Write a sequence for this structure.
């Protein structure tokens, strides 16, 4: 097994997906990179996830379960796999921050954030770590993300603070929100990461504030874009590392739009310095658009009946 000098933390956030999390962990265990530490943060699933994950993985590796207080105090663990049993669910940002802080407390400064429904396909993490070490202004590497059939998923379109553009994007987002075109060289600079998987310089990430814990499950990538740009760091699309993403993220405004709306309002107020009247107008048009979609759906159903 190849021994590398710099330990890497693989941080996986679990919420009621123990089977997927176990498969994700097994894909990480299959990587030749060493030393590595797998940190699973269970976001208070209350469905037996912690016990199921521990039982599934204990036959092959030593698994240690600690609690949020232990993690916050930086309790040392010798096992390769650590499950942090969180006693609250404060969402994607707070859960991943708990894992990142714990990794840093163990002396680990590079981390791979992974959703449970991701699988690292290429066994070349050491190349990504070397790339980060050689480029101190690079904060995040975004792998090449593919679907289950290995077709490439597009990169996320960059966010903008422009008021009129954000109004127009409600109705014409398909035409205005275009994924960046990147050459398939080894790397290209991009503006916005993909939250499902990213290789991060954890020390510098903590220096710029980590994930914004005011966001629960939407908008984290947009905030990282703004904070990274303002801090002078870079986000790089690194195509040499390939990750399979089994579930495409839906960007439909209609589906779960309340959470989308509240996240956007928070970002506009805190990262774009919008006035209240601007946020109110944006919200009005969003609600008009959602109402229009609902009426169209009802009309379609009535035609079928």
């Amino acid at each position: 097994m190849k021994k590398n000098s710099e330990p890497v933390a693989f941080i996986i956030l679990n919420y009621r997906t123990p089977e997927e999390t176990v498969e994700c962990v097994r894909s990480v265990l299959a990587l030749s990179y060493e030393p590595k530490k797998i940190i699973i943060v269970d976001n208070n699933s209350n469905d037996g996830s912690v016990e199921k994950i521990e039982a599934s993985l204990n036959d092959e590796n030593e698994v240690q379960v600690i609690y949020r207080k232990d993690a916050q105090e930086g309790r040392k663990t010798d096992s390769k796999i650590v499950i942090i049993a969180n006693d609250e669910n404060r969402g994607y940002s707070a859960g991943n921050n708990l894992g990142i802080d714990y990794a840093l407390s163990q002396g680990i400064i590079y981390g791979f954030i992974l959703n449970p429904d991701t699988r690292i396909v290429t066994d070349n993490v050491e190349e990504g770590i070397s790339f980060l070490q050689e480029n101190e202004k690079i904060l995040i590497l975004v792998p090449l993300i593919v679907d289950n059939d290995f077709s490439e998923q597009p990169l996320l379109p960059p966010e903008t603070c422009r008021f009129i553009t954000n109004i127009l994007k409600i109705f014409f987002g398909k035409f205005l929100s275009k994924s960046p075109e990147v050459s398939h060289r080894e790397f290209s600079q991009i503006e916005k990461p993909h939250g499902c998987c990213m290789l991060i310089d954890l020390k510098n990430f903590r220096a710029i504030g980590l994930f914004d814990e005011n966001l629960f499950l939407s908008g984290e990538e947009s905030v990282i874009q703004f904070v990274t740009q303002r801090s002078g760091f870079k986000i790089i699309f690194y195509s040499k590392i390939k990750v399979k993403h089994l579930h495409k993220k839906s960007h439909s405004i209609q589906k779960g739009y309340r959470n989308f709306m509240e996240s956007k309002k928070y970002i506009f107020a805190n990262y774009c310095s919008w006035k209240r009247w601007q946020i109110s107008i944006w919200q009005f048009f969003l609600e008009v658009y959602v109402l229009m979609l609902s009426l169209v759906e009802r009309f379609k159903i009535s035609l079928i009946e």
